[in-house]
Amino acid sequence: QVQLVESGGGLVQAGGSLRLSCAASGSIFSIRAMGWYRQVPGKERELVARIISGGSTEYADSVKGRFTISRDNAKNTVYLQMNSLKPEDTSVYYCKLTTISTSWLNNYWGQGTQVTVSS
User: What's the pLDDT tens digit per position in 91-118?
Assistant: First the structure.
């Protein structure tokens, strides 16, 4: 069984910083990608940032230049450094793990961590 444990969320003032962490454990054989998504009530869950096995990264336009995703492959952990936070960043942030086995991909989600940015 694969488990994702997220940490680092909380309340911060606009312009401040937070670092989210997501540690994966369990029967993990090969990681294809890890990423962060966010979702507010009534809205579709959206990609914030992800990092692929080869090291390439993708960011939502709204966070480019402010957020940085990184990973520690040995620990199966992904981080999201969030700087210059804005109230619009307020959301529940979810960690996503994608593993690959033969021709199949498996996706796993964390429970979500709340990030609140005050004006």
Answer: 999 999 999 988 889 999 999 999 999 9
Round to whole Å and give the CA distance between 53 and 100: 10
Mode of pairing for the β-strands spanning 10-13 and 113-118: parallel
Question: HEC profile for the chain?
Answer: CCEEEEECCEEEECCCCEEEEEEEECCCCCEEEEEEEEECCCCCCEEEEEEECCCCEEECHHHCCCEEEEEEHHHCEEEEEECCCCHHHCEEEEEEEEEEECCEEEEEECCCEEEEEEC
pLDDT, the chain, mean: 96
Nearest to 98 by CA among 38, 26, 20, 30: 30
Residue 69's nearest CA partner among 5, 15, 21 is 21
Question: Cα–Cα distance between 53 and 86 in angstroms, integer?
Answer: 30
Residues 93, 36 contacting (CB under 8 angstroms) = yes
